[in-house]
């Protein structure tokens, strides 16, 4: 059997979808699994053990360069259609992902499966259903990992067993990255594309200062120029010299290798925080929106999800207390 998973983006969503790979292999040994991802997330999808082939697409870039990307689009379509699948499973539920699922080739008697409805807190476009031969209904309030697991299980007629599992197999560290793979470094994941998720620089500087005082080092990652400037400001406010560092922006496969060898992370509800937690590193996840119930990596024993409420705001000491707990094992 050959299965195609369609989960194009983003970092956190690819992480949340990844447990379906281990589920499928456990239920249907010998299955070959391919994955379609946006070009930026291809290196991450290649780190998921059990994924045979990752098909890159660049829908975001192609929309801006439609004429210039004509030959590249043809090549990508040829690669997508180079295999026939027993099942194509769209875990995203958007028109763009449904289009990719529709363009993939399915064997006679095969299935194209996707979501039948929106679930709370998740993007969904009802027109995506036209691409599916099987639309799977979900309860409105469901964890995003559980939603993907149920969808894949319904498409392939098995029952998922046990807790979610992701077997990450990142590449060996290149020499240039060894300096960033610090087993005493806590990664403070302060950046987010959504301003509602952000905490101010003094919050993070307070945490960084306390961690250094307790014998840890600190890494301040970034993904945009604005986030790099924030990292530099947080480092300056912490005033801890070389104990607080701003690493370079790394491709996701190399970043996965580095995180796997780090002390762990304290971070917002973002992809990097979810990646750290699923790598089994001690992780504290900070949810400013009411989303811990649907996105926290709550099955990992060394992860703590802190949900802000009107009565209990997230403070530096609250986050540090949770870190001390998970770091102690």
CATH architecture grouping of the largest domain? 3-Layer(aba) Sandwich
Mean pLDDT: 97
Total of helices: 13
Radius of gyration from CA coordinates: 20 Å
Q: Could you name the CATH class of the largest domain?
A: Alpha Beta
Question: Any chance you could write out the topology, listing elements then pairs?
Answer:
Layout: E1 2-6, H1 11-17, H2 19-27, E2 32-38, H3 42-45, E3 51-57, H4 59-64, H5 70-80, E4 84-90, H6 95-103, E5 105-115, E6 134-136, H7 144-156, E7 185-189, H8 201-213, E8 217-219, H9 225-238, E9 244-245, H10 252-260, E10 264-268, H11 271-278, E11 283-287, H12 292-295, E12 303-307, H13 316-327
Parallel strand pairs: 1-2, 1-4, 2-3, 4-5, 5-6, 7-8, 7-10, 8-9, 10-11, 11-12
Subcellular location: Cell inner membrane
Keywords: Cell inner membrane, Cell membrane, Glycosyltransferase, Lipopolysaccharide biosynthesis, Membrane, Transferase
InterPro entries: Glyco_trans_9, LipoPS_heptosylTferase-I, LPS_LOS_Heptosyltrfase
Task: Using brief descriptors, characterize the structure shown.
2 domains, Rossmann fold, 329 residues, 6-stranded parallel β-sheet, 12 strands, 36% helix, alpha/beta, 20% strand
Task: Characterize the structure shown.
With 329 residues, the chain is α/β, with parallel strands linked by helices. It folds into two domains: 2-156, Rossmann fold; 175-327, 3-Layer(aba) Sandwich (Rossmann fold), CATH 3.40.50.2000. The chain has helices at 11-17, 19-27, 42-45, 59-64, 70-80, 95-103, 144-156, 201-213, 225-238, 252-260, 271-278, 292-295, 316-327; strands at residues 2-6, 32-38, 51-57, 84-90, 105-115, 134-136, 185-189, 217-219, 244-245, 264-268, 283-287, 303-307. Helix 1 packs parallel to helix 11 (271-278), helix 2 packs parallel to helix 7 (144-156) and helix 8 crosses helix 9.
């Amino acid at each position: 059997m050959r299965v195609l998973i369609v989960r194009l983006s983003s970092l956190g969503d690819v992480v949340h979808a990844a447990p379906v790979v281990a589920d499928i292999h456990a239920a249907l040994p010998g299955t070959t699994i391919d994955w379609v991802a946006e070009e930026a997330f291809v290196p991450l999808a290649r780190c998921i053990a059990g994924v045979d082939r990752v098909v890159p697409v660049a829908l975001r870039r192609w929309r801006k360069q439609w004429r210039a990307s004509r030959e590249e689009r043809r090549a990508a379509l040829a690669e997508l259609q180079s295999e026939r699948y027993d099942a194509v499973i769209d875990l995203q539920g958007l028109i763009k992902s449904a289009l990719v699922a529709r363009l993939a080739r399915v064997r006679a008697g095969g299935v194209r499966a996707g979501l039948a409805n929106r679930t709370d807190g998740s993007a969904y476009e009802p027109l995506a259903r036209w691409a599916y031969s099987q639309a799977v209904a979900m309860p409105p309030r469901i964890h995003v990992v559980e939603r993907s697991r149920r969808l894949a299980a319904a498409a392939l007629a098995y029952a998922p067993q046990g807790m979610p599992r992701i077997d990450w197999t990142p590449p060996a560290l290149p020499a240039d990255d060894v300096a960033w793979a610090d087993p005493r470094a806590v990664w403070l994941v302060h950046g987010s594309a959504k301003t509602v998720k952000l905490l101010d620089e003094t919050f993070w500087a307070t945490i960084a200062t306390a961690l250094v005082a307790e014998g840890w080092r600190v890494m301040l990652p970034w993904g945009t120029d604005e986030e790099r400037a924030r990292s530099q400001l947080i480092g300056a406010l912490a005033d801890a010299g070389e104990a607080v560092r701003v690493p370079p922006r790394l491709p996701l496969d190399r970043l996965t290798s580095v995180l796997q060898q780090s002390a762990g992370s304290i971070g917002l509800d973002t992809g990097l925080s979810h990646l750290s937690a699923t790598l089994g590193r001690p992780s504290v996840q900070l949810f400013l929106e009411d989303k811990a119930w649907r996105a926290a990596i709550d099955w990992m024993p060394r992860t703590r999800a802190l949900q802000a409420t009107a009565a209990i705001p997230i403070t530096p000491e609250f986050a540090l207390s949770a870190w001390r707990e998970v770091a102690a094992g």
